[in-house]
Amino acid sequence: MTALAGPAHSAWRYRWTVLGIATFTQAASGFFVQGIGAMGIHLQRDLHLSTVQLGLLVSAAQLVPLVGLLVAGELLDRRDERWVVGAGAGVVAVGLLAGSAAPGYVSLLLALLIVGAGYSTVQPGGSKSVASWFDASQRGFAMGVRQAGLPLGAALASAALPFIAEAFGWRATLVTGGLVALLGAGVFMGLYRRPPVPAAPRDDGPRASLRSQLGARLRMLREPSMTQIMLCGASLISVQYGVGILTVLYLHETASVGVGPAALVLVAVQGAGIVGRIALAAWSDRRRSGRYGSLVLCMAAVLVGMAVLMTPLGRSPALACCTLVWLGFFGYGWYGPWVTYVTESAPPDRTGFALGLAMSVNQIAIVVMPPVLGLLKDLSGGFLPVWGLLSAMTAVALAVSARVRPGNRPRSCGRHGV
User: Fold this and answer.
1) What is the residue-wise DSSP string for 289-319?
2) pLDDT band at residue 278, thresholds of 50, 70 and 90?
3) What are the start-end ranges of the H helices in 254-289?
């Protein structure tokens, strides 16, 4: 705690260290799962998988968080993020290392369920840790940097894992992912500290019943701002995972791009996502329309990109690559402003639960969409129905969000307006 023992100003400078370790832990914990798309051709070849089965690998890692995010949110409101996030990243490492010994596809799915259980704490925990260290004037930028950890991990995985799989086999990629996650757990537990603010006074009055506590939390679902956020999140997270899983396959099969160059394009897509998460979140700190305006811009840009992919223009290798990078910027970049919107819309004592609740709604889309998109591709033999479904979901979310103009949208029920 020596970093926090000095004057208040020096102590608050530690927030940049917190931001760095939260970003690193996010990247390390999501390293393997976010790299599955780049290994799609290798996994299909070595394990004889269909596109649906490939999508199910991603869904398996995201299934437990449907409930796990809610549990993690409660833990984060009651316990130090240091241990909750660190332990979760450790479970991710254990699951991946166990998966490296999986005898086949079904065993690998079970190992990824364990990975998902651990990852449940990393997303809301890292977001809460960063939100608690930064005030509203810098929170969007900081959250954007932290959320860039996901595409950063994905980009590094997309660059490294296909070569590891080619040289040493798919099992070596799980060992690599497990060791990276273990490093992330150690860094977070070793370096994270809570902000230097007085502890909130304890409430020694009678505790509410479990039923009333649950009811108070679930009433957040009826808040117009939360409903709007979750609808935007579900549509855009579907785009993000669709682009992440299918970019290499689309470029290889539709635009006749080689496997190696297609994997490098996916790295560029995820690199654009890193820039997008930081730039769009920083932009939302300074614009009058704020987080809302950034989300609307992202949905409109996604519709433009999907429209290109659904026309013959999408068969041009150069234009397809540029369009997918465009979708990387906006289809990944939305998450920084979105997660900031969630933290600022939540009551101060329920930030962890609000993050867990909103992210668990996203998890429904994360679990359902990869196999659904894979099934559409397998049944149709092409990608037009895939991009069409993602476009329709985004258009619906944009239409609903547009009914609430930035000037009269619901005010935040938390500490800061959005």
Assistant:
1) THHHHHHHHHHHHHHHHHHHHTSGGGGSHHH
2) confident
3) 259-286
CA-CA distance, 388 to 299, in Å (whole number)?
Answer: 14
Which amino acid type is present at position 289? S
Q: Where are the domains of the chain?
A: 2-195+222-402
47's CB contacts (< 8 A; 6+ apart) are 53, 104, 105, 108, 170
Say how far apart CA 247 and CA 373 lie, in whole Å: 12
Q: How far are the Cα atoms of 115, 184, 398 from residue 181, in angstroms, in the given order? A: 10, 5, 36
Between CA 387 and CA 394, with CA 392 as vertex, the angle to 5 degrees is: 95
pLDDT above 70 as % of the chain: 81
- Could you give the CA distance from residue 284 to residue 273 in angstroms, rounded to a whole number? 16
What average pLDDT does the segment 234-254 reach?
89
Interval 285-310: pLDDT, tens: 776 666 778 888 999 999 999 999 99
Please calculate the CA angle 71-134-184 and round it to the nearest 5 degrees.
55
Q: Please say if the pLDDT value at position 401 is more than 90.
A: no
d(CA 389, CA 391): 5
Separation between Cα atoms, residue 312 and residue 204, nearest integer Å = 67
Rounded Cα gap, residues 55 and 262, in angstroms: 18
Under CATH, which number does the domain 2-195+222-402 receive?
1.20.1250.20
Residue among 49, 257, 20 at smallest CA distance from 146 = 20
Give which of 55, 51, 48, 60 is closest to 377, Cα–Cα: 51
Closest CA to 343 of 273, 412, 274: 412
Q: Output the six-digit token pair for 4.
A: 């926090």
Residue range 92-121, pLDDT digits in tens: 999 999 888 877 888 888 888 888 888 888
2 C-beta neighbours (distance < 10 Å), count: 6
Write down the residue that tokens 């990608």 correspond to. Answer: 383
The CA-atom distances, in angstroms, between 54 and each of 46, 60, 281, 337 are 12, 10, 32, 30
